[in-house]
Amino acid sequence: MPFPLSLEQKQTAFWIAVWGAFLLLLLALGPVLTPFLAAAILAYALNPGVDRLDHLRFRRFDVPRPLAVVVVVVLFFCAIAALVLIVVPVLQKEIPLLQAQIPAFLAKLNDLLGPRLQELGLKVRLDSAGIKKIVSQQMASSGEAIWSAVLASARVGGTAVLGWIATVVLIPVVLFYLLLDWHPMLARVAAAVPRRYIGRTLAMANEVDTLLAQYLRGQLLVMLVLAVYYSVGLMIAGFDVALPVGIITGLLVFIPYLGFGLGLVLALIAAVLQFADWSGVIAVAAIYGLGQVIEGFFLTPRLVGERIGLNPLAVIFALLAFGQLFGFVGVLLALPASAILMVAFKHLRRHYLSSSFYNA
């Protein structure tokens, strides 16, 4: 015979079901929540700057919070625009030079690989005329399939572009309102926590906040060190575009693969354009290979992992595990999410060690 539930147990079951349904709704609305999640992450990172401006006093003038929010948001997007303005001139300079160098590069490649391909029974010329011939043959043999693929990708790509445009437009708007109401919003969240758990919840939230602040400082140090390393390394190798390419690579390392990949492509293009032999490509391979080793095995585990209390092996495992589970976004959020989980596990372990189940 089942035991009748008390009123408190019924209320607990009801609210657990409500919160479970709410979490399922959030999972179902995942794509819609992307700009809100991105804006919330940016708001968390930028809120300390808004708070400092908000508490400043110029003579008799107190800086109102809306003005502080506008200043911080404008400065943030100006920094992003400055980064874009660093990248675009490099591309504008390198792409026309690359187009002019392509025939000579293909001729060099044909001289190098042509005899070896002929030894394997492949009569292929790797110059402009040979590549045009190969492409035209492939287009003629599979024209309908290519056209169908182009139409399908255009439909999907058009929807994706509209989604990206909506996200880019929404993020600044959502970011402004989140920063404007940051403290009242946190107060409302705290007010929704059951009173019996409020002390423990606030203590865990403060621990997570401290760890994430240390993570952001550590990640900033990694970015600065790598920007200096890549700039100096490319400068020593004799690259004309060492400074902008090094800065791009270093500052974008917080986005896994993108910063490193973009910097590597730009450096390889510069090597092909500037050097007549393979010395530039070899230098790029050495500089960027060593940079990956320094970042993956020394800087990130030491400057980020130690600051959030994670063992270097735990940092590497977190990056791999979150990347496997959630893809690119998982890699991006691996370390801060691990910091939050670490706080939760620490409190869970403390509760376990003090429980009668463990001590009995």
From TrEMBL:
Keyword match Cell membrane: no
Transmembrane region(s): 13-46, 67-91, 161-180, 220-239, 245-273, 280-300, 312-345
Keyword Membrane tagged: yes
Membrane topology according to the record: Multi-pass membrane protein
Keywords assigned by UniProt, alphabetized: Membrane, Transmembrane, Transmembrane helix
GO annotation terms (biological process): transmembrane transport
Localisation: Membrane
InterPro entries: AI-2E-like (IPR002549)
GO CC list: membrane
Protein family membership: Belongs to the autoinducer-2 exporter (AI-2E) (TC 2.A.86) family.
The protein's name: Predicted PurR-regulated permease PerM
Organism: Rugamonas rubra
